[in-house]
Design a protein that fits this description.
The complex is a heterodimer of chains A (115) and B (110). By secondary structure, chain A is mainly β. Chain A is 0% helix and 50% strand. Chain B is globular and about 45 Å long. The termini of chain B are far apart. Classes of the chains: A mainly beta (115), B mainly beta (110). Chain A binds chain B through residues 31, 33, 35, 40-45, 48, 50, 55-56, 58-59, 91, 98, 100-101, 103-109, and chain B through 4, 31-32, 34, 42-46, 49, 87, 91, 95-103.
């Protein structure tokens, strides 16, 4: 079946512009996660959704970052006034439910480059 | 202190060798543990969950040592296709925040 999809696969933007990254989770998966991975770094947790609610936003690095999820499905991560340090691969993952043993399935990521 | 720490390697081993990776975690109340595999410029994929009693999946064996707060991954009879970065993942006991290590790089040499 279809896995997690993300768009765009690559995004190049100028410093100061806003960007929107999209994630389509696996159908039926109620939990959705956003991470970012900088070159040579581990995955950094950004935000977690259960349904449309985000009980844990603690990983968002600044108020320039926001995310929403609608209809318990698609999620959008928005970065306002992008900075060069925002350059990274942004990965989305979904899991069947909220239990911490549920396997996360990752999308291919969006590679963001801020010039 | 980082939540999860791994030796970044790289580990370069010949085909057929046995190789082991360790990972330490800082939160003694962590509940779940995983090993993920990430190929170059690809997304992470679950390799195996790690259970308290230890578990094996073919050539791969995972162990958990709660007293010392580390998990390990053993790969026997290494194949060229095992070349990848192996990520240690730990779930905090506070819910759904997962902590990823920076990964251990493995290259299996013909």
């Amino acid at each position: 079946g279809a896995g997690v999809s993300q768009s765009p696969s690559n995004k190049v933007t100028e410093k100061g512009k806003d960007v929107e990254l999209r994630c389509d989770p696996i159908s039926g998966h109620t939990a959705l996660y956003w991470y970012r991975q900088s070159l040579g770094q581990g995955l950094e947790f950004l935000i977690y959704f259960q349904g449309n609610s985000a009980p844990d936003k603690s990983g968002l690095p600044s108020d320039r970052f926001s995310a929403e999820r609608t209809g318990g499905s698609v999620s959008t991560l928005t970065i306002q006034r992008t900075q060069q340090e925002d350059s990274a691969v942004y990965l989305c993952a979904s899991s069947l439910g909220p239990h911490y043993t549920d396997t996360q399935y990752f999308g291919p990521g969006t590679r963001l480059t801020v010039l | 202190r980082k939540e999860v720490e791994q030796d970044p390697g790289p580990f370069n081993v010949p085909e057929g060798a046995t190789v082991a990776f360790n990972c330490t975690y800082s939160n003694s109340a962590s509940q779940s543990f995983f090993w993920y595999r990430q190929d170059c410029r690809k997304e992470p994929k679950l390799l195996m969950s790690v259970y308290s009693s230890g578990n094996e999946d073919g050539r791969f064996t995972a162990q958990l040592n709660r007293a010392s707060q580390y998990i390990s991954l053993l790969i026997r009879d290494s194949k060229l296709s095992d070349s990848a970065t192996y990520l240690c993942v730990v779930n905090a006991n506070t819910g759904n925040q997962f902590y990823f290590g920076t990964g251990t790089s493995l290259t299996v040499i013909p």
